[in-house]
Amino acid sequence: MYGGPPNNAFSRVTTSLNTAFGGAANVTVFSSANSTFAGFDALWIDLRNSTGRISSSEATNLGQFIASGRRVVFMGENQGFNGWNNSFLSVLGVGGSASPNNLSGVLTVQTVHPLTQGLTGLRTSSAGQAIGGTSLFSSNVATLWGGQQNVLTYLDASNLDQARWLVPFGGGRLSDEGIFANNISAWLAAPSTLTAPSTVVPEPSTYAMLGLGLAALGAISRRKRQAA
């Protein structure tokens, strides 16, 4: 995951985010959310270990950031990380929670949105599921939250693993050639909007192998545009 150990298992995620934000110089990594993040445009919150929780001070800061309308991506996982998942979902104040059930299988696109653009579907393996929010797929693994729809929770961090990035959806692996991850980066970097997703269209992990030390929260800032 972003800000993770030097095994490069998630370096494609780092590259995707750096590209979307115009270079690594525009991305700042923090070890916690014990900050107001004043001046930052968006947040990517990494998966902590299975016993990790968002503290009360972090919850306050994140709640304020979310209320401002700026975009946030939160990475969660399956039921082994339910404490972590729920410690963030409770920050949202919209009544969301994490299901105690894991999910494996093929998901179809349910919500037309820039996040699902170009996707045929998504494969999951032992993913977590949310209760509430606007589900992007036929099962609630990736979810938009709030009246401003500015928060995305993705409860399948293992689906961004390096080995799964380039395997096509039809190849029996877990990704759609990294399209969804690139969409997430592009959405996070785009100017925030109060527009909700357009149309809901019904259409015909094992634990994330993230290694130790992935308790980092990444704060992402775009470089201010130069004056014309």
Q: Could you characterize what this model shows?
A:
The protein is α+β, with helices and mostly antiparallel strands and 228 residues long. It is built from five helices and 13 strands. It has helices spanning 11-20, 56-67, 82-92, 162-165, 179-189, and strands at 27-30, 42-45, 71-75, 97-98, 103-107, 111-112, 122-127, 130-131, 134-135, 142-145, 151-154, 199-200, 217-220. The strands form four sheets. The protein has a seven-stranded mixed sheet, with helices on both faces. Strands 4-8 form a two-stranded antiparallel sheet. The longest helix has 12 residues, at 56-67. The radius of gyration is 16 Å and the shape is globular. The protein starts with 10 loop residues before the first helix and ends in an 8-residue tail after the last strand. The relative contact order is 0.25. The model is unreliable at 1-7, 194-217 and 221-228 (pLDDT under 50).
